[in-house]
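tool_log.txt
---
The assistant was asked to compare two proteins side by side. It first ran the structure predictor on the initial sequence, then on the second. Raw inputs and outputs are pasted verbatim so the downstream comparison step can read them without reformatting.
(1)
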Amino acid sequence: MRERVRGRFVGIGVGSYELMQPLQHAVSDVRELHALLRGYDGQPLADPTEAEVRTHMRELCRQPQEGGALVALWSGHAVLTAKNLRLLARDNTGEHDGIALTDFALWCAASGAHQVLIVVDACYSGAQLDEAVGTVATIQEQLLAGQVHWTGVLVSCSSFETARDGLFGGKLRKLLRVGPTADEDAWRWSDRTALVDGGAVGTALLNAWDSDVQRPRFMQYGSAQPMLPNPMFAANTVVKHLLLAARGGDSADNRSWFTGRTDQVDRVVGWVRSGVPGLRVVTGSPGTGKSAVLGRVVSLSNPAERDLLLTTGPSFRHADPGPGSVDAAVHARAMDADRVADLLSRQLVAAGLVPAPEGPRRGAAELVGVVSALTAPPVLVVDGLDEARGESFSIATSLLTKLANHAVVVVSTRQAHRVAGGAPLLTELSPVEVLDLDDADDEADVREYVVARLGSRVPQSTVDELAKLPFLTAWMITDQVLADGGADLKLSLDAAFERELAKVPSARALLTALTWSYGAGFPEEEWRAVAEALSGEKFSREDVTAVLTELGRHIVQDGEEGTAVFKLTHQTFADHLRPPFSPSRDEVFAPGAEKVACALIELYRQRLRAGVPPDVPGYLWKYAWRHCGHAGTRALDGLRALAVTYRLLLPDIALAATTAANELMHWGRADEAIAPLEEAAEHFRTLVPELRMYLADLAFVLNKLGTRFREAGRLQQAVAPAEEAVVRYRELVASTPTTAESLTHKRLAQRIAKTTPHGSENPTYVAHLSGALVDLSDTYAMLGRRSESLSTARDAVKVVDSDAPLARAMTCLATRCGETGRRYEAMQRSKQAVELYYALAQTNPVHLADLVTALVELSRDHLALGRLSDADRVTRQAAEISGALGRHAAFRPQLADAALSLSVAHSLVGRTGDALATARQAADLAAGLRVHAQALHNLMRRQRDAGKPREALATGLRTVEVCLLPENADRLSTLAAALFTLDTLCAAIGQPEIVDETWDRVTARFTGPHLATLLMLRAAATRAGDPAAAGWLCQALTHVGQSRQTIHDVHDIARRHYDSGPWPWDSLPDWLTVDRSLLRTARAWVFARSYAEERAVLLDHPELLSADADVAVTEALYGTSLIEAQVMQSRRTTARRQGVVLAYRPWLLASLADEFVDATPARRRTLLATRREELLDKEVLKNVRDNRPVHALLLLASEDTGVVDLVLEALEDPARVTEVLRGLASSASPQALTQAVTALEPHALAALYKAVALARAGDTHLALPPHDQRLAWIHELTYLVPENLHLLTVIRKLAEES
């Protein structure tokens, strides 16, 4: 966020005149207003002459400010001459002298300020008001074109009135000292914003004016931004939602009505004061007081609110948590995991517990990393987790459960369930303790609350009725009694809401719009825009004021990025206005989301056209992308259109595209997710070299993209993003600089193969790295690259040491060991996975399904080793756990997976009956889930094994129909497997025509690559030489399109059939008759794991460079992506022309550059010792030029080896960095010192030591650091002066500036 420019104050007060009556208050009015304007530079000018005023104002123009705000106040006499207002200085007579108001306005306009407020307190000051505003606006349009600007002119009276001395100035100061009095203005001066805009001040003064002596006037032009101190601002206050909940309502005197609930508060206080990490939950039905209980504890922890509670509220009987007991609190409504993390982080930074993030925000994974490094667990409170709607589970799993390992995390939430099924929210949270408010008998507490609010004179029958209600309903009805003088005590909560909505005609539309806001809420302009888009009506400021005035108790006024924002007080009311949306495959995005997003994008466009920069902090800059991501294609198109002109919005497109892709993938429209994922990856890759904060986003998107390609069977396309995801996560873990360049597949693979993790320098992303390695291992395995899949799985295990990521990695390694014939190791690894999942399942039943799957894999391993009794024992154990899982009704997806795995295990150990029974259970559980077709196919096989061919046939046909559903269009492997099983089944019962008819029905439903894949799989399943296969493969080739993987597979299968003997292919293409030995050699070259191996193959087999090998090489290259094939053909062409050695030289040097970048300091030292000449080659320097520290290190190696050794020592032991730099400041050359500092970046004093190098080189121009760093510079320079006396001049300059 850009640093705010200090404002300027121009105050001219003339109270003493040579020839006119004195004014008692003119000078003091100016001085007192100046005292109120904290953060404004400039001294008032008291009783100046006209010449002094003109000199003062011209100086203002000669030294213009760079943006910021200007407040200019003139207080004194004025005269109206020929309709021109002239402001009179001390020596003016008012006849032919004085300063024209338009001249005063011109000087202010030329000051360089972007926000200009001119205040004139003088008789007749309303004259020429329009001209003054127009003058400043015209000048600003010329000087500040394309930049946001605003002008306001506030005068003390009209053009025909005289002004009473001191009246206007006193009321203006009162407004800036205590805030507005009118309700409509008080709602807009949020106590959460430090500044208010000039427009709000002018409007509030007019609305509060109560004198008949004179009437001020105010005009404004442009876009008003916060500029004046807000007297209502309360720093370091409690989250507004928690504050109001804890007080039991809102009141003018901020009184607390919290009563009772002693046991519940005591329980939470005990959690907060325990100092024991873990996640605790307060839960209960809507309206039971979850937020009130947490808010009470948080409020008593906050010093300011604590003092208020102790002095104005009733005495409390519960335990006192003590001041400062809660370190950070957030209300999670309408937030995602990264936003919750960022808000928690800001409070922890402000408390001095964690360092500030490198970028403008701190995401979930990074927050977990920094909190894990703390010596004492912080106390974090998250209220309303269920109110995050679609993000609740993500916040729970990606942030809160991970923070709970290192912090005391207290969460309030209702129970919530995934639309698609699975573990409920409380189970995912896996709390160590739960406080359920539904278990409490709170009638006495509600009774006490009602009496406290309504007083003892209320009829006992009313108290008795209200005491039976939940706290929220009691709060609403007591509010209605207090506001309206009566209420229907028999109303349901929904009926009470409807009664409230009936009070204001525009209430339903405006309050419904608030349910769409993110963060702390909508600013007023965004609020109206969304309401108008959803309702088709127009709403004015007066409509908003009416809702705030009549229904303000249902609205939280908060502040975000310096602007007042609004959201609903209670989620229950939000749900009444807009019931929670249940997405599905047919309707992924919520109805209305597109209208909301498009309305906000249109508002964004209008502001941009008005000159407001896109990155001005505000709601649209923070949340427009999220609205677009949750709305779909049309809204994204609007954001893309803005980014064409405003490149600062590129990250927003990437983030929105990622969000949309996640939604599409989750609801079974994965093919539609590929394009936005590719777009997001492209943008993030562009951004990362300058903004490293997006590296984690890039890695995440690449991993998702690789997984998506793999699931769609596009294995060649899956490799590159999967490999790059691993490289990017390694850069995050090792904290190494990155350029995020798009590398070739082989270069990525070499970086993966040659790099070992750097001792977990940054543990934040270790689990993500392990997960990406597992995904890459699976992709390699599916491509038949077994050696690489095994080594990658081993790396996945190495980088983590506990919990679910290690269990998943261990399961992957067990599978890879089994695939490569390492059966005993596979069994041992499976045992370790079982032990890990068993430990995890003890605290969270979510992992029971994983445990069943791990046991089934262990059973397979025992069978492979011939240990039948062990296999049988493990299978029975899996069955017992699966039964336990079945008692958790919410676990249908996990239970379906477990039953499916268990059915296979029963089959493996020969328990046919159990296998069939479990298969039926799995098929029933999987109905409507992603694994439904797979479960049906398994049932079909179990029925076949049990001697029930007719049942198996019916199930097989049903399996095919399920596979043909739109949501299963990309799961061709299951469809093909079902058809193959159906083929053998129909052959066994003597009805082959059924499978032929089914195949015809299936192929009629597909076109393009999907059809080609099915035909290819059908040909692959037939006996070699089957004449029918020729027709299927010929048809496949006509539909294959640009799918190189399918072409590769079709050609391979065709060659297998052709090699078996005579085969009826219409013609003999060269790819069919290609020399098989030459093809094997070409494949050895293409699939070599490194450039060195590639070069060796070509040196040993020069025949690959001949034209006779072109067909073999082309066929081998079909096994790679088009880009990789083009690159390899280019290398082959260069090798033909220049020779193999020269052709591979730049590629081998690029590989060496990658190895040096990824290496540890110790490994870099070894490489410099053994391959120095190559590392200093210009080709290597070109490859690392964007990586400034590595580039500097290599340049240093070519100039001063002694300095390089010291730098490497400092890199190995970061504690020595300052010591090394102090030594080099006097011993190394200025150039070597500069390179050493760059090689050691990032370092807090890097800029200082670069300045020292410049000073030693004789450069007298010193770039001063920010004010808050100058004392640190002076302190460090004192260590350097004894050896560098000329640095005294630097210290002197710093001291003078400070």
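(2)
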Amino acid sequence: MSIMNHKKSQLEKGTSQEMEYKFKISLFNIMHNIIQNNLCNTLIYCVLLSIENLQLMYYPIHPVIDFLWDNKGLNYFRIILRYFQYNYLIDQGVTIFIILLYISFGVMVIIGVIFFTSQYQLSQLKYQEQQSGMLIFTFKLLSLLLIILNTVLALPFYNIFLATIYCRSDSAAGADLGCYEGIHILHMIVAIIGIVLLIFFHFSTTLLYFDLNPKSKFPFNGYQSDAEYARMLFKFVTPFLIIFNAPGTYNSEMVVLFGVGDLILLFSRYNYPTGYNNFIHFYKITLELIVLWINICVIITDFLDTGAPDDMGLLYLFVLIPCVVFGGLYAFKNILKESMTFSIKNLKNEEEADNYLNTLIQLILDRQSPNTKIKLMGVLKLHYVNCTKTGCACKQLISYDHKKEESIKEHETWMKLLASILDDIITDEKFKENARFKIFYSYLCNDELKNKYNALHYMMKAEDTKNHTLRDEFCLFRFKQHIESEMQEDSEKAQDIDVNSIVFFQNQLVVLTNMIQKSAESHLEFWRELQEDHPNILKLQNIGLKVLHQIDLCDEGYQELVEINNNNLNLLEFYNAYLSMVVHDKEQHEQLSQQISQIKKTIYQRKQGGGQESKITESQETIIITMSGNVGSIGIVASCNNEIQKSLGYPASELFEQNVSKIMPKIIGDQHNQLVENYMRTSNSNIIGLERFVLAQNSQQYLVPCKLMIKVLPNLEKGILLVGFLKPLEKLPGTHYMIYDGISQQILNVSESMKDLGIRVEDIATTSAQEQPIYTFGNLFKELGDVLNNTLNQNDQPLKNQVYKLEGDIYTAETIIDVQLFKQLLQSNIHDSDNKKMGGSVKDSAVMNYSGDFKKVKVKLELIEERFPLTDDGQPAGGSIYHTIVIREDIDQEKVNYGKSLIKQRLDESKHQINQQQSIDEEEDKQKNFQSSVDDQEENKQTKDIRSALEQSKTPRQIIYLRYLTLILFLSTLALSISKLVLALQQSILVDEGVSAVRQAHRRHSLMADINLYSRYLHLTSFGNYASSLEGAFKANISVLVDKLQVIQFDMIEFRIKVESRSGLQIDDDQYDVVFLLSNNETKTYGNIFNDAVFAYITSASSFKKATLSQFNDTSNSSSVSKNLFYVVENGLDVLRNGSERIADKFYNFYYDQVDAQTSNAIIILIAALVIIVICEIVYVPIFMSIFKERKRLISYFGMITNDDIKNLIDQGDKFILDHITKFKSSDDINQIEQPQQQHIIESSLNQDQSQDIADSPKQKVEIDQRKSLFDQTKEKHQRIYESKGGTHYFLIFSFIFIGSLLMIEYIVMYVLEDQSISDAKLILDHYLYISRRASIIKYNILFTLEALVNDGQPRVYMENDLSKYYNQKVYSNEQDLFKTLTYTYPSSFDDYFAFFNDINFLNVCEHITWINTLDLITQSFIFVDSTDNFTNYTFSSSELNQECNQVKGGLLTKGLRDAIFLVSLGNNELLATYSNLQESLNAFQIQELLRKYILPTFWENNNIFQTCFYNFLDIRDQVQIYNFVGFVGFLILVFFFLWISYIAKVQAGIQQSMRMLTLIPDDLIDKYTKLKEAIEYHVLGIRQQQQ
């Protein structure tokens, strides 16, 4: 597709090429508006360039380059430069890095939102709609933002985005970001989006933010070289190299690349021409030379200065900068000087031509300066010497006195010289494919030579070049918009007619005509389907809906046209016929008919009153033709209204894409394209915008007198278009028109009125090819022909002066037409030529055609135009002179007036008789039918009410029920889903609490076992069984353990409160018999609740920290320490241990039951969901069935109309299409069509009379039987339509059942998953119970062994149980239960745990445990670690512990933890069985303690891994539940709101449209069929009840 729109589109809709074209035009449009509203001036742009250059200076002297000069000044300079970009800041930590990243991203997003929002708003502007102030402000803001982004923000933004994408873990920010994992992925996505937006805007601005117009005030107008692309690439590569070389590994290579990049940048500027703003151009070069010199100095320092860094290089750097800058500028300016020494013929390439033109433009624009004028005169003289053109402007300029003040004419001459030079360049073979030169020529034509159409032609030629670029296309687009706005401004200033609106109206009228044609065809399709014996109800519904939609579209199109012109009779009459014959909207038809009558009356009154004639552009009979003025398609008709068929006989489709010369006489048509080309080349015309007389040529080749006005359409959407307003003139009696050749006297064309004189255009065409033409001016006008043939008058006078005399401003001649002589010549010609070939048929035909009373007619000739053939350059050529004349007959005006008065009298008499008869008939009808008239009015009112109610039908009750039911179903399913999610999350909380409660409950008596153990150690130490040096270690252990026990006790109280508040059960309300030691060595038992007993236990154990060993050895038991020791040992081993274990079991049982109870909740939710869904399905189906039955019933009412009436409706539609759509009929066709219609009308009236006779005759019974039969037929057809199979209700019902089934399946699946989750939770609780017991069981097994040893080998008994054997058995039973749980399948979250569990239980424990390397686990195992050597030897290093672990009891731990547990239990039994004395047994007991040292921490590590996996399991489970809920809610929203609700709305629209379809039945048919009217009234009544 073409930017200039002068080519026919070859792109198919939806193709990639079309999408590319639309994107390109959209981008061009917004960039054009941004440039038009540019706020950046030269000063601001230079400041931005300076800041950008400071950013570039930082990189060659970057701190990472370690071989640079060691100087404080350089360091300070770096400090200044680093704050102009991000490179330094991004290394200041992750916080600043992220802030900079998201600030940069935010700026890009803001620019993107503003840019694309503005683009969207621009695309939504309607025809001729002005831009809003907000949109203009947005463009102004974008103009600044894009320039700032393209200069000072590009480097920092590239830096931060590239640093995020290319993340380095060795950088300050990268170490904390965690490159390519975690949150850095999000940062990287943000950076990728940001850099894509940045590249898009950077490239778009670099590519399109410029102006080639030399007179533009844009700060960077002029040709944009490839240096801008190189600069853009340099900005991208530079920060990447710094990031890549962050460690400083490739410093030398990096500075070399910087230098090479700067050289490429400068060379790209050197080889291309400057811009029109030399200051900007050379300022850029100055900045780039400074950066290049810095790079060169750095490279020299790197490769040549091998010593230590010093200050000399820095000195040379600053000293030589002015020299480098001046030298570089001199080299660049020297190119411009050399370019002006060439002649045009010596220009070798486009770059030299560009430099030549740019320099010449600058010289011409600045020629007021004396130095510039001297240079310009030198160029002028050089051109004058080499110029070979005769009319070149250089010859005029040489002759001027340039010392005087310059005149406007001299300025124009300079511009003509520039145009002449540019024309020479364009015509040169080397540059003919250069689009830029043609674009510049178009600027010159429009702005300086004031020739916009020639400018547009050169723009079209520029686009037709093969090697035009995207920038060239943008220049074409911008300048086209500029010229179009100028044309519109000129049109508004002239206060001329709005050609845009007229053409737009005509185009939209064509669109409306096509829509109405489709609507009429759809109506016919509907009635023809209804005419079938078995109509398809589904097809009727679909066609009916399409008909209603098309009616609405036609109404919208009509209203749009009425807003433009509400008095266009063609539109009003056409739409009124559509309402009457197709839509059958009686009310609107009557209203529109009144409006049409009023307009016609106004026009008639204006004509009768002698008012001013309507303008040619406002007349209803005006032909409007739009013609192309584009290169390659001049004169081609782009559009035409249908008036041309009425006036000239050409169908509009026949002229489309044909040359407009088809409707012109040949002598004018042959010259027309050349005249248009001349106008486009010069923009000079005396006819544009003026009404003038012309002769058109109709389809029969006759001349038609017309008024013509031509306007140029100020809209370049389709290129240059010329709009012609052609209005045929009223035919005057006795007035004829003729065109003849003044040299050969051959008649070339005549008006149709000449047939009255016996002259036909067919005969002229027949004889025109003969050597001796018969139809000549001399033969027709004998007297004047003799004058022309008289040799005496063959003189040097103009031809028109030989025949005509000048009367005022008109050349006239009076003569006589000898018709009889002309007839004889014709007959003689026919006899001599054609009759020889075709016998007598031609002669007879000719005589027949020309028979009549011919006589001589006196006429007056008026010469209205003398036209000469034209040469190729538009100059008159010799050979022929074409005369256009008006022939006016000398008519007796008195006879004419008498004839007119006689006709008027007869018409008045006839009219009076008709009016008199009508008044008599009306009076009779009024007397006879007064009552019936009242009844008819009432019926009409009822019919109008019915139609109004059908068109404004409200929502049916069934639809309201469906909406409520859908809402209930949605809310119910949503509530159940929320309940299910809440229960699932509550279950997670319960399981979490249960695991925590079980863990803490078992840790409580586990800690009590440790306290009892170390208390016994203190007791034995006081008797010397252990070294007294261990006293401090034992006390410290007890202190730590007591503190932890106190914390756990408070946790257990919290758990107890939670449990009791949920269940109402009392966890530890039992009374426990606690034993106290009295001062007299007697014991006493008190009843106490468990919590109080535990706190007394904690208090007693806490007192050991300050006690001495002697107090533990008090045999009298008089000290408090002895009493506390007794309380701790006796109660801790019996009552409190047993109570703690019982409470732990209660907690476990409670949470297990709570989790198990979730199954019943899930079942309740499942049952509720299934019941609700089933109930809704049961209710839905009957409602839908009733809706579709109702819809079928409505459609079936059409079956009450008889086939005769349907045929009548079809005939009306066909007649409408024939009369108002298919307008391309000849007059003969019309006559042939009207005769059968008249015959049909006569037959209809006869049939009516006959039917009246029958009604009055005895045959009335026959008519009654016929009507009864007709009623039975319509009733049968109505029933057939109602009972026919069709529609989508079965599919809809199946769809709803399918959706309901999906919901059921979803809830069943959710229940299954929930049940599995509950089973997993119970299994986890079971497993965790057993692994939590392991530590306390093994501790008590060891502890009760020690107690038995202390009691001389006698086991401790509690509640008739040997506690040593009891815990021995518990070791085996717990291990058995634990390993039974391994037979079940656990969630995958526990895979790591069970891998570790199997490793430590069945393989070498020492190789798989990690607590040895992390002393934190040792602390968690409640074993004190001291700085001095103690009993447990915990000061060993990890390697020593590992070695000891493998050697304990002959490598017992290497066989697995399970075996070690069993062997510990067996070892305890062996100690008791082999007891001899306490000390030996205690020495042997140290092996058990050593095993305890490794087994217990392994338990804790195992439990910790389990807890980690457990919490991962809960997190995953909760996430799955949430995702499942979100997915299910999304599914519900999709189904209910986007599918189901929308489908209900579609069903509602369907039934409402079905009701509205009844409006297709005409009002008279509704009144005709009583049953039909009653049925419709029933529905209207139902509608009204709903409204109430």
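---
observation on (2): Residues 1478-1557 form the longest helix (80 residues). The chain is about 70% helix and 5% strand.
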